[in-house]
Amino acid sequence: MPKGSPERTEARREEIINACERLYQTMSFKEITIKEIGNATSFTRTSIYNYFQTKEEIFLALLKREYELWIASLRQAFARHERLSKDEFAALLALSLEERAQLLKILSMNHYDMETGSRPEHLAAFKVVYGESIRTVRSGLDKFFPDMTEREKQDFIYTFFPFLFGIYPYTFVTEKQRSAMEEAGVNYVFMTIYELSCHCVRKLLK
Q: What's the CATH code, domain 60-205?
């Protein structure tokens, strides 16, 4: 870790993560390299290795930040309400995910690569935030549906969180993919993040 104030270190880390985020808007995970990320920062490419050893660690830090933003959004939304019906809770969760399309994209595309390509300490820091996201959703179930049993809440969590990995591919498709579906005769109705998520949560709460 480079010498310097914690503020400077954090600012450098954020600049690297922000550069990766910008590149990911127009490039694929495979196309993005440490060199590409370094060229998009204000300091030398080799300086990145003082903060991250692989691009997977940078992407994992970006995903961690996305989870932190999602957690903050959920906590604020839960705090604004004393009661929510099942439909209202489903709509709230769906809206929170609609605002985090990047989180869903990274989950669906690169999650395994990021975890296997990151050092244990980076992975552990990520898992802390991931665990907090589970506890945050669980807190919503505890607050708004106190009659749910422990088994029902556990079933919700263990279905909802794996479901997150599949949302992006079902809601963002290229023209090439759409044409292939039509040519294959697959009768599929494309849905938005909000629509798909809301439908799933409603089903889980029944």
A: 1.10.357.10
